[in-house]
């Protein structure tokens, strides 16, 4: 009967130890479950962040493409407007250039006539004989010159400039050969005379110069 209390104590200790182990196992299980749940939450948050980042990148790429498309459209619209303006200017210029040519021919003829009148029929000074007529002709020449200068200035303001390639090498992109003939002292392919000057619009040829070329 002496061993009975010891047996009871051992049983109690065993029961306490079993309860402790069970509690420890339960706590460990709860901890593992909590860790797993926390890991799942973190994984879900990470996936959501990645999805948002991907969506942000997609929106950013879309915005960049839209901006690039708009910039290309703006540049294309500007180029188209400039090209249309240049075509309009060139069309008007081509219609005006013959009138300018006529003015220049009239001016050259009037100046030549003035010089002939001033020299007189026998080379003398005939100004005192035709003073009134000479004055009128001088005013007419001055008027033609003024109109010619105003027209040239108006063309220059919109980018149209004349060019006279005498002495240059013949360029079929800029010159139209009216005659090709041997010319003493001139290298073959050189422009030796300009029948009609050419015109450029902002560097582009709108009328080639008509020239005589050395053979």
Quick overview:
By secondary structure, this protein is an alpha+beta fold. The protein has a domain of 56 residues: Head domain of nucleotide exchange factor GrpE (Nucleotide Exchange Factor Grpe, Chain A, domain 2, Roll), CATH 2.30.22.10. It has two helices and six strands, in the order ααββββββ.
- Strand-and-helix sequence, N→C? HHEEEEEE
For the termini, the CA-CA separation is 148 Å
Fraction in beta strands: 5-15%
CATH class of the domain at 160-215: Mainly Beta
Please give the number of β-strands.
Answer: 6
Give the class from helix and strand content and strand pairing: alpha+beta
Outline the structure in words:
With about 220 residues, the protein is of the alpha+beta class. The chain is built from 2 helices and 6 strands, in the order ααββββββ. Strand 4 and strand 5 form a beta hairpin. Helix 1 runs antiparallel to helix 2. It is found in: Cytoplasm. Belongs to the GrpE family. This is Protein GrpE.
């Amino acid at each position: 009967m002496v061993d009975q209390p010891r047996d009871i104590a051992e049983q109690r200790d065993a029961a306490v130890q079993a309860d402790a182990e069970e509690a420890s196992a339960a706590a460990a299980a709860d901890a593992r479950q909590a860790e797993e749940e926390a890991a799942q939450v973190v994984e879900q948050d990470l996936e959501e962040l990645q999805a948002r980042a991907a969506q942000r990148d997609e929106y950013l790429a879309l915005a960049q493409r839209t901006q690039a498309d708009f910039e290309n459209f703006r540049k294309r619209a500007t180029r188209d407007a400039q090209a249309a303006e240049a075509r309009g200017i060139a069309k008007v210029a081509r219609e005006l250039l013959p009138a300018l040519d006529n003015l220049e021919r009239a001016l050259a003829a009037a100046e030549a006539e003035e010089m002939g009148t001033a020299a007189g029929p026998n080379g003398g000074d005939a100004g005192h004989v035709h003073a009134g007529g000479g004055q009128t002709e001088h005013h007419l020449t001055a008027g033609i010159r003024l109109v010619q200068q105003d027209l040239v200035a108006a063309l220059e303001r919109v980018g149209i400039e004349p060019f006279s390639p005498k002495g240059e090498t013949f360029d079929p992109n800029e010159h139209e050969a009216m005659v090709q003939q041997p010319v003493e002292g001139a290298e073959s392919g050189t422009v030796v005379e300009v029948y009609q000057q050419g015109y450029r619009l902002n560097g582009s040829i709108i009328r080639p110069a008509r020239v005589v070329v050395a053979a």
